């Protein structure tokens, strides 16, 4: 500033000083707002591998986020604390940040904390993540637990339909704490994680609003911070009820799904979608996208498709390439239920027959279907000539209302006795035992954590019989 400035009369200087003061106040206010940004949802560990993990966080405002992490359980040593690069938090992406943390060592546990604008975000849980173990050709596979659930309607009265709240009473959200108490290594969200309302589904901003509202559910955070998480979608987080490939905002819906889940991948470079594979210990998940390429259930065409020809070919190739003894095909709606007139693969008979025939012809062993959507839980068993029976675990709902057709479905011949549940519930799959005696224990729990049923499957029973054997 020149000396001439100070030679002016006070009446001439004052407007300039006022302007400078206002600018300083505005700058300080904006800086204060940025510094005030804090954790809104998460953190959530997504897909994990032997040498990296993905972590998701969401903040209340703009700034930058960072993960600090360190290996735990190192005797007589002060752990070395490392930090990821910072990720900007911007309004255009709902103040979401995703991190890929690596290169890590297999089979290790790490502590971590979230930093937003340089300040540690305090949460009520001890935050840890685990890399997958390198057990192949060395030891038996590790014992581990998966949680499974679908259909989680979160009430919002001003936008919901009139009448009884579809998402139940506030205390029904305790299901998330019950799931967290089971300490799952992996939670698989089986579709309809949220429900777009009529007010949401006709605009991109409406879709964004619903994701942010539901992901911020206070009760859900305890589960998001437990173990790791992957998800498929079904119609309600894709678009309208029973949505098909014609939905005009499906590109925006896909971008939001990618923003809010840290899955291992999404589709293929040449083929958009949410489908992916994910190997977790001795199981491999084949996570299907049954919406992006889907024909309408009512379309009268012989060759109508639920997956699309390209995704179906991808699935077949992925199954043949898999070296995992347990193959879990995760789909949004049921596969082997022929009793229902509702949303399921039975409405696409040619395509379903094709994939079921493929499993037999190519002797694909260890297959179990994991599905949701139906607002009840059941374990189905389909006997198949010349090969092992095909099991399908349908687990639903977490928070949504109970289906109105339960009595008719309860008596369906494929339902394994004692496994039909018509209340809010979640499921777990425990994988345990040596490689030669591996077993999967399936359970269903009420929203308070009470065990409703248990059924054991042995992996040795999910094998194509050798030639000459029954």
Q: Could you characterize the architecture of this molecule?
A:
By secondary structure, this protein is an alpha+beta fold. Helix content is 21%, strand content 26%. It has helices at residues 3-6, 10-36, 175-181, 204-215, 221-224, 235-238, 250-260, 309-321, 349-361, 406-410, and strands at residues 39-48, 52-59, 63-71, 82-83, 87-89, 96-102, 109-116, 119-120, 128-130, 144-149, 186-190, 228-232, 276-280, 283-287, 326-331, 367-371, 378-382, 390-394, 425-432, 439-446, 451-458. Strands 3, 4, 5, 7, 8 and 9 form a 6-stranded antiparallel beta sheet that branches. A 6-stranded mixed beta sheet has the order 12-11-10-19-20-21, covered by helices on one side. A 6-stranded mixed beta sheet has the order 13-14-15-16-18-17, covered by helices on one side.
